[in-house]
């Protein structure tokens, strides 16, 4: 009896220390209702396990005794037998064990089921980056002659752009004498808010990148150099919203596509 009571009290003390450490570690990553539930169940577990430690220690120090009979032999006369009642257990060990288990069960359930605020936001928005740790959007693969990560275009694209520029400069102006020539808008320039039928905002969907958005705006006839110039202008216009990595645009982000 005494040995079992001491083991039960020692096990309750160890469980108390472990639960306090787990609650302190997990509370840093929780917020809102989960944090409140963890604190309440943690207080319940601490109180219950402390009670189990105290009751187990008292049961070990005051074990029960069996009934006995005390026989007294007087100097004259017949001996007399006096029954002595035994001492009952202060607290049954089964009750102490149930107290420890029932106190620790709720906080263990909260520790297993609790989710961090980032996990809750990921479940609500369906963002695979927060759920699985992967990038939210994989930028579409740019042509081999151009990468949207900031690298300069390769030699073929540069040569093609130079040839087009020389052909345009060699053609005679089509305007009438005396009127100033109006240069065509550069692909790198974003349309102004006052432009007719200009769409000044675009919501990023899954699979979009700055390269693909720029290519869609310029159309099928755009060259790699034109797309490169446009996506850089888009990033410069939306740098605060996109962040330091232009290759990563998250679904739901609203891009400003006008200057």
Task: Domain count, please report it.
Answer: 2
Overall mean pLDDT? 73
How many strands? 4
Largest sheet: 2 strands, antiparallel
Could you give the order of the helices and strands? HHEEHHHHEHHHE
Structural class: mainly alpha
Outline type = rod-shaped
Low-pLDDT residue intervals, each spanning 5 or more residues: 128-147, 150-159, 172-180
Q: What Rg is obtained from the alpha carbons, in whole angstroms? A: 40 Å
How much helix, percentage-wise, in residues? 40-55%
| Terminal residue distance | 84 Å
Strand content: 5-15%
**Widest β-sheet, arrangement of strands:** 1-2
Please work out how many helical segments DSSP would assign: 9
Structure description:
The chain is mainly α and 259 residues long. It has helices at 2-27, 33-61, 93-113, 117-125, 128-132, 155-170, 210-218, 224-237, 239-242; strands at residues 68-72, 80-84, 201-203, 254-256. It contains nine helices and four strands. A two-stranded antiparallel sheet has the order 1-2. Strands 3-4 form a two-stranded antiparallel sheet. α1 runs antiparallel to α2 (33-61), α1 (2-27) runs parallel beside α3 (93-113) and α2 (33-61) runs antiparallel to α3 (93-113). The protein is rod-shaped. Mean pLDDT is 73; it is low at 128-147, 150-159 and 172-180.
């Amino acid at each position: 009896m005494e040995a079992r009571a001491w083991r039960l009290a020692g096990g309750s003390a160890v469980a108390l220390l472990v639960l306090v450490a787990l609650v302190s570690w997990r509370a840093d990553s929780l917020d809102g209702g989960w944090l409140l539930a963890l604190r309440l169940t943690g207080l319940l577990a601490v109180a219950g396990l402390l009670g189990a430690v105290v009751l187990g220690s008292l049961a070990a120090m005051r074990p029960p005794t069996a009934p006995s009979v005390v026989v007294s032999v007087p100097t004259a006369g017949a001996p007399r037998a006096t029954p002595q009642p035994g001492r009952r257990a202060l607290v049954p060990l089964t009750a102490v064990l149930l107290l420890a288990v029932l106190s620790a069960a709720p906080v263990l359930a909260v520790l297993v089921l609790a989710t961090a605020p980032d996990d809750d936001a990921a479940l609500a928005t369906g963002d695979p980056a927060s759920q699985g740790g992967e990038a939210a959007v994989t930028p579409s693969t740019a042509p081999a002659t151009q990468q949207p990560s900031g690298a300069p275009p390769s030699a073929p694209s540069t040569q093609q752009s130079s040839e087009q520029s020389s052909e345009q400069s060699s053609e005679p102006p089509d305007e009438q004498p005396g009127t100033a020539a109006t240069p065509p808008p550069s692909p790198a320039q974003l349309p102004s808010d006052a432009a007719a039928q200009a769409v000044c905002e675009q919501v990023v969907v899954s699979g979009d990148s700055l390269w693909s958005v720029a290519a869609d705006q310029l159309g099928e006839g755009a060259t790699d150099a034109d797309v490169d110039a446009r996506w850089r202008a888009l990033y410069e216009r939306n740098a605060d919203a996109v962040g330091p990595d232009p290759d990563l645009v998250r679904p739901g982000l609203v891009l400003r596509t006008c200057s």
